[in-house]
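In the previous chapter we treated chains in isolation. Here, by contrast, the input contains two separate entities that must be folded as one system, with a combined length of 577 residues.
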Amino acid sequence: MLLAWGGLMLRFWLTGRINILLHPDYVWLAITAGFALLGLGVAKLWEALRLARRGIAITQPSESHANLLPPGWSSALLLAIALFGLQFTPRAFASQVAIERGVADTLTLTRSQPQSFRTNTRPEDRSLIDWVRLLNVYPEPDAYTGQKASVEGFVIHSPNLPSNYFTITRFVITCCAADVYPVGLPVRIKGDRTAYEQDQWLRVDGDMATETLDGQRQLVIQATSLTPIEEPQNPYDY
Amino acid sequence: MDRLNNALTLFFSLLVEAMPFLLLGVLFSSVLLLFVDERRLIAAVPKHPLLAAMIGGGIGFLFPVCECGNVPVARRLIVQGAPASMAVGFLLAAPTVNPVVFWATWIAFRDQPEIVFLRVGLSLVVAVIVGWVFSAQADLRPLMQPGVARAMPAVRGAATKPSGESSLLQSGTYWLGQADQPIRPDGSLSSSAIAINPVLTKPLSDKLWLLVNNIVQEMRELGGVLILGTAIAAIVQVFVPREWVIGLGQGPVTSILAMMLLAWIVSICSTVDSFFALSFASTFTSGALLAFLVFGPMIDLKNIALLLSMFRGRAIAYLFILAGQLTFLFCLLINLYIS
């Protein structure tokens, strides 16, 4: 059981899938725990072998902690989940989760307080998250009109936007996948948004403009070029 | 299919994040079990019940155990003569007021540091108040399980009584309203098996093996609970309609009650429950998150079985009601006036 869990944690790490599960600051915790579990597993195995060689039956410690589950069930559950986890490939969240978690409200508040505020950043160097944070701090769309934008993210067809708009979106993670939340900006394109599938990753270059969408004045990106890109190794931003 | 994959991704994400902290908590509580002698600690506790309750709550920082480790420790504290206020203060505060839990909560709620500090502060306040209330009962024995009661030393207050009585019939032997059985204080002589932590006298290599075995055993038991709790969190997040959860989570009163009930049911360990709460962070009020984080470690479904090894049902009901009311009250104040 311990070996399986140690193996599971290390496998997520070695296949790079851990980026989908955790904020990178905490990956080392999972890796350390993986090694510790492996170590414990090896120690127990060694003990069992040693006892078996001497012909002593393995006895459970007598003082047991009362618990919700009988110990046997708990071990079985742990083992089953670990074995299942070894087969399972986690996938990054996509448009469905984004819409459910409220990217449709367009400018979702970012929960992170911006740690550094760089006013001298060139507009085209700002990431999607930088833009949304900037708008949170100074929510006046007109102030940014005409600035250049170049952001990466995936496409969401927000139901409350006209058909020549989609939302370019990214998830922000602070701890683990349980708390990822989407941020996005509307993008105006020529033609219909069905040319770009939901969940497709794009780099959007364009200029900022102010529009009234869904009864709200807000910043939109007027796209000049749209380049399909690969889904990044680490799909979240921070 | 997408939903299932999302739920599983969420599930494994929570598990992978929580596992290191569970391991750390288990490691600490096992080390504690094997290497610390509580008797020296008790000798240094102040007499005043409020101070004792504060000390009891504060020593969680020396004894970083989650709620599965704190009951055996509290039991040993009581048996070795710790005042009631200290033992109860420790019992309620230790699972939350300790460095491992503080760190885990910090990692989960980095963006809302107020949650971290309010969690620790509120837990301490509730634990101290309940501990203080319990000190009104000068002798805890009627509230304890017979085995523990027998093992307890004579009450401090009783020792100062005028010594006109027979030395064979000590004060506090019979209790009004407790006619079912007389309590026999002479039991304390035969109870050395509980009174002294038997492991402390063993050689180091044996201790290390016991340490490994204890860690593995606790991982085995708590891991199962962690998996169940995580599965509930993942299912609620992905499959329960969001409007429904938000509706429940936004009311200042309903959100607190819902999260307290959830805390009671999922019985997740305090070292990892902040990750569980995190998945509700965007939909529930801060007061409700705090109610979950403060109340859960004190009393939950799993914990009651443990507490029954120490207290009688009546005392557990007192603990449950007192801690629940205080948590609810404070969290409601936070919902109404702070956030």
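The radius of gyration of chain A is 24 Å. The longest strand of chain A covers residues 201-213. Compare these points with the single-chain example from earlier in the chapter.
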